[in-house]
């Protein structure tokens, strides 16, 4: 339907005057109502798909039923429905015209909001939701675009039940990818909605959790190029730590957000008020001022207001005689606010490094972060700008002068680039298939102890994967992995999920055996030691990671239950030590301090993938191959982690000559600063020279000293703990525990040495490979608190 064409149309008592906006479910018009005379907003609903006469009847029946329920909701934070009706097959609703825009507009404009404001908004929307739920109405499409804002700052939840009316005939797949704008943006969709399961109030609470996440961080938790990519992440991947994106967010508040975003509905808050109260308490206990009048705003509204309006149906036999009472009870938008809310104070920008630098256009990623809001873009631009300003990019000449960039120990500059290709980990970019679950593996029905699923791992299966139109179930019509993963905050409990197999991986050779032939040649040539370092970009993603049969899972730091409910839940799952649950719980506890886990089997963290013959995900690992003795390196695109940090990484040389320049290892405390107009790059590296009788080496790099940027801090010959050479048996897991100025090095579980150095206090982690032709497979990157 051409929405503009309806201008001038008279629907009931309203003449459509101007198109205000159009979404996936309909168009909104500014309209003049004749009885009572006033300006209103009229929403004309549009079914997702063309309807047969029979479907039209069902659609209108749904419309009456759902709108009747929604219109009966009278709450200060719910947009009233003045009237609704149907005419010439068009179903429409009449609402107050609210001129303050939507929360989406505000978030786009402001980015992250002040925390006290977040608490205030959360409380208002929570009050509306609980009220609706208590009256048996589920919203199903909670998102900032459906939260109107009055000029005085009052939030009004709108569009109750519309998704059910408009998209009932459409499968989740059609809803997300069908003709026209998608209905039910996946950004805010609960996992159970993603796969088309029947939803209850807890789906709304999840969506509220996503809004909370966005108000706090400026971005929704999951980004992707297609709706399916985002949907799949809701299903599978824990949200990135909000605290990493918003450093002033108290950990307890992060815990609240993460609980709201639990994949399994039973792990979420059961009432929105519990969520808003927990969030407010977390702020207050961290000393963050949440003004009483703000917090009490909704209660004040509640007390001060009676019936806002009397929603009447055109099908209501009393309609014609109740116009006067309806009119008197209707409240124009401007009256919907009692002025209790303060004005906006503006957004908070994240990321403080290099904000003034500009990211070269060619390096700006368009994938993972392309949907980001301002805060994210700010950080992305900032981080990549560092590279753009000081480090050469692949295929470019790059800086060639001392002080302008990174200098190898042999005087050569490395080839570097940014990891801004934006590849998505879960679904192919052009996928239109819905993530789906086989009947036997409902993603939310399983709570098995580890022993019952054997080792945690991936169960490959094949089949068909598609969503079934008009049904709540889905069938597999493509290859998927059925995965078991621990439930955050629920030690010993696991859920089953579906992870589509990524065709791109197949193209890259998934399942192929890595040829790991021991290299016998030994060269004594003193070689080049070039280095490379990439940008730092803010994307810390807490991921469920699967590799080598081990599942890592990531949670916010500190797993202390933050609410009585959580404590009870934990107590409820407590079993005597030695039981499978206890063992699983012990494992979970050990992992509780995980800050970030990346199995490096897929590009979850926007790692560099260009040039493809240098940086590539294949065979379940991230491969870096040095070409032309340039040395290659990359750093994790994440905020530096302050305080004690354990960095663990598994490395396996795939090919390379056994010379003393054949080295690879870990970078840490990498940073760049501008000093006297020059960019100074600093970092530590812990490397191995992978030769027979080779060495571990610990280096400090600081190119402020142009003549001697490299300083060796420690070296030690391999012991029996090191698996020298190449191949499956030459896989080594290194750990560096950074505690202030102390660095403790552990290889394959054997602690080697603690070395002290005061030079660098913080920075990024990464990995490096040196020597032409050396290819190293990196796996299982893990950042922990200890
Ligand atoms: N009662 C209202 N008063 C004033 N403007 C409104 C009102 N309701 C909606 N709008 C405006 O109309 C725009 C379109 O709303 P609509 O609900 O059709 O789409 P949406 O919410 O953006 O997307 P979707 O349909 O997918 O939910 C909104 O973004 C909002 O700016």
From TrEMBL:
InterPro entries: Kinase-like_dom_sf (IPR011009), Prot_kinase_dom (IPR000719), Protein_kinase_ATP_BS (IPR017441). ATP binds at residue 43. It comes from the Bacteria. Its EC number is 2.7.11.1. Keywords: ATP-binding, Kinase, Membrane, Nucleotide-binding, Serine/threonine-protein kinase, Transferase, Transmembrane, Transmembrane helix. The keyword ATP-binding applies. GO terms for molecular function: ATP binding; protein serine/threonine kinase activity. Residues 14-280 form the Protein kinase domain. The keyword ATP-binding applies. Residues 369-393 have a biased composition (Polar residues). Residues 350-405, 560-582 are annotated as: Disordered. The chain crosses the membrane at residues 531-554. This is non-specific serine/threonine protein kinase. It comes from Reticulibacter mediterranei.
